[in-house]
Design brief:
By secondary structure, this protein is mainly alpha-helical. Helices cover 52% and strands 8% of the residues. The chain has 15 helices and 6 strands. The protein has helices at 3-12, 15-44, 62-73, 75-88, 107-116, 132-140, 147-154, 157-160, 187-201, 204-212, 217-230, 234-249, 257-264, 300-307, 333-350, and strands at 52-56, 97-101, 122-126, 177-181, 316-319, 327-330. A two-stranded antiparallel sheet has the order 1-2. β5 (316-319) and β6 (327-330) form a beta hairpin.
C-alpha cells in the first residue's frame, strides 16, 4: 500500500472526524427533540374558549368530530384536539356519547375526555304533556334517536304490557318528573328507566288502594289526568277524583269538559258549548266509562290525592263564578243547575265565548 493511501485512511479514521460525526448526530437528535417538543407544546397550548357538549354519533368519523368541536370551540382548538385524538388512535365507534368540554380545558384534557372520559348526563323533564306524539317529539330531540324510533317502541304492546298498560295508555308511563339519561341511550333504554320509575311508584300499597276504589293503576292514571286538567288547586284534586269515581260506580257518563278539548285537539277552548259534537272515544259526554288512555301526563301527588281521598257523595261539579280556578260541588242535579247558572251569568258578563 502506498504512503498516499495510508495517509488518506488515517485522515478518514482520525479522531477528529469521529467526533464530528458524533456532534452531527447529537445535533440532529437535539433538533428532532426540539421539533417534537415544539409540536407537542403547540398541540397542548390554548384553552377551550367556553364550555360545550361535544356529541359523537354512532359510526362517527374523525371529520365529524373535528367539525363538531370547531362549531362550538373554534377551528384552531379543534385542530389541536383532533390531532391528539388521532395520535391516541381511539376507535370513535366505542365512544358514542356526549362529552362536556369545560371552559379553559386544554386540548390534551379535551382529548382525554373525548377518548376515555365519562359522558355528560342530560336531564329530561316531563310536565303536563297532553299528546303522546308531542312528548315523543320533545323527548327524542334530546337523544341520538328519532321520534319514529321512540314511537315505534311505545306502540309495541309487548313493551308496555309488563307495566299493565296498552299502547293507547302509553302516556300513563310518564309521570311528571325529571329523569337523567345519557345522550347515547336507545329508546328501549329510555322506556326501561321510565318504566322502572312507574313500577316504583305503583307499590303494593298503592295498588291495594286502587283496588279498593275498584280501579287498576292504569285507570287511576286516566282519572288523574282528567283531574289535572280540571284544576291546579291541590286541595281539590282528591275531591274531583272521587267525584268521577262516584259517577263511574253509578254508571253515569263522566261528562268531563277536558275530554272534549282533548278529543277535538283544541286546548284553548274556555267554554264548551256543544260537547257532544265531537265524535271520539275520548269524549266522555258521548261514551260511558273512562277514555281509552290518559289525556295528559300526571304526577305522583295527584295519584296519591285520589288514592287517599275521603269518600263523599258529590256527582256534580261546576267552576266557581269567582274564577278562582276552584269548583262548587253538588249531590243533586238541582244544586248543580243553580251553581251552573251563577257561573254562566259571570261568563256572559265577562264576554267569554
Amino acid at each position: 500500500m502506498t504512503e498516499e493511501k495510508k495517509s488518506n485512511i488515517r485522515s478518514v479514521d482520525s479522531p477528529g472526524a469521529g467526533r464530528r460525526r458524533v456532534y452531527w448526530m447529537f445535533g440532529l437528535s437535539g433538533l428532532f427533540v426540539i421539533a417534537l417538543v415544539g409540536i407537542y407544546l403547540m398541540l397542548l397550548s390554548g384553552q377551550a374558549p367556553s364550555g360545550a357538549v361535544i356529541k359523537i354519533p354512532s359510526a362517527a368519523t374523525s371529520e365529524q368530530l373535528h367539525d363538531s368541536i370547531s362549531k362550538y370551540l373554534g377551528e384552531s382548538y379543534a385542530k389541536k384536539v383532533s390531532r391528539l385524538v388521532a395520535l391516541r388512535g381511539t376507535d370513535l365507534n366505542s365512544r358514542h356519547g356526549a362529552y362536556l368540554i369545560e371552559a379553559g380545558m386544554s386540548p390534551l384534557d379535551a382529548m382525554r375526555r373525548l377518548t376515555g372520559g365519562p359522558q355528560e348526563p342530560l336531564t329530561i323533564t316531563i310536565n303536563g304533556f297532553r299528546l303522546l306524539p308531542v312528548l315523543e317529539e320533545k323527548v327524542a330531540a334530546r337523544f341520538d334517536f328519532s321520534q319514529d324510533d321512540l314511537a315505534g317502541v311505545l306502540a309495541d304492546s309487548t313493551v308496555v304490557k309488563p307495566y299493565g298498560l296498552t299502547p293507547e295508555q302509553a302516556l300513563a308511563l310518564f309521570f311528571n318528573d325529571s329523569y337523567d339519561f345519557y345522550w347515547s341511550a336507545s329508546p328501549e333504554d329510555v322506556i326501561e328507566k321510565i318504566g322502572s320509575h312507574y313500577l316504583d311508584v305503583w307499590t303494593p300499597e298503592r295498588k291495594a288502594k286502587a283496588e279498593a276504589l275498584g280501579l287498576t293503576p292504569a285507570e287511576v292514571m286516566i282519572v288523574a289526568s282528567i283531574v289535572d286538567e280540571e284544576t291546579n288547586a291541590k286541595e281539590e284534586k282528591g275531591t274531583i277524583g272521587r267525584l268521577y269515581i262516584n259517577r263511574l260506580k253509578k254508571g253515569m257518563r263522566l261528562e268531563a269538559d277536558p275530554t272534549v278539548r282533548f278529543a277535538g285537539g283544541d286546548f284553548t277552548i274556555k267554554r264548551v258549548r256543544n260537547p257532544k259534537s265531537v265524535e271520539s272515544p275520548y269524549n266522555t259526554y258521548i261514551h260511558a266509562g273512562l277514555p281509552p288512555g290518559p289525556i295528559r301526563t300526571t304526577s305522583v301527588e295527584t295519584i296519591d290525592a285520589i288514592l287517599d281521598s275521603q269518600p263523599h257523595d258529590f256527582i256534580f261539579m261546576c267552576a266557581k263564578e269567582d274564577f278562582s280556578g276552584r269548583h262548587n260541588f253538588a249531590v243533586t242535579y238541582a244544586e248543580h243547575q243553580a251553581n251552573a247558572r251563577r257561573y254562566k251569568r259571570e261568563l256572559d258578563r265577562r264576554g267569554i265565548l
